[in-house]
Amino acid sequence: MAKRSRKRAPSGRAKRKRNRGVARNALIAVGVAAGLLSLAMLGGDDVRHVLDLRRDYTQANTRINALNSQIAEDEAQAAALQADPVAIESAIRSELGLARPGEWVVREEESTSLRNP
User: What is the model's pLDDT at position 106?
Assistant: First the structure.
């Protein structure tokens, strides 16, 4: 004869534990619902505006970094022009298209046509 297993009624502790789990799940559901409601009340335009502002901020920072590096290069070139006579001569000759005696100046024209050269 096989023994029948009896199901025991849950103890008070098990009931409290189960009730805490249900309460926690209900609290999470209420939180999610409140978040969705607040997002719906703010509207999609505000969220989109914030995202656009973040993108603009990132682009501005990238541009600022590029300009700062350009400033550093220009300051280094200015310092070289103040101290080095060869740098001064080179800058003047390249800017004005001048050559030393015996040198040739070759100018390259920019092609605006779409044809292959």
Answer: 75
Q: Rounded to an integer, what distance in angstroms lies between the CA atom of residue 1 and that of residue 49?
A: 75
> Alpha-carbon dihedral of residues 70, 73, 74, 78, nearest 10 degrees?
170
Radius of gyration of the chain (CA): 38
Per-residue CA distances from 60 to 64, 71, 100 (Å) = 6, 16, 44
Q: Which residues of the chain fall below pLDDT 70?
A: 1-19, 42-44, 111-117
Domain spans of the chain, in order of start:
16-96
Beta-carbon count within 10 A of 88 CB: 13
- Token pair 């008070």 is at which residue? 12
- Residue 36 CA to residue 80 CA, distance in Å, equals 61
Q: Which residue has 């050559």 as its token pair?
A: 99
3-state secondary structure of 71: helix
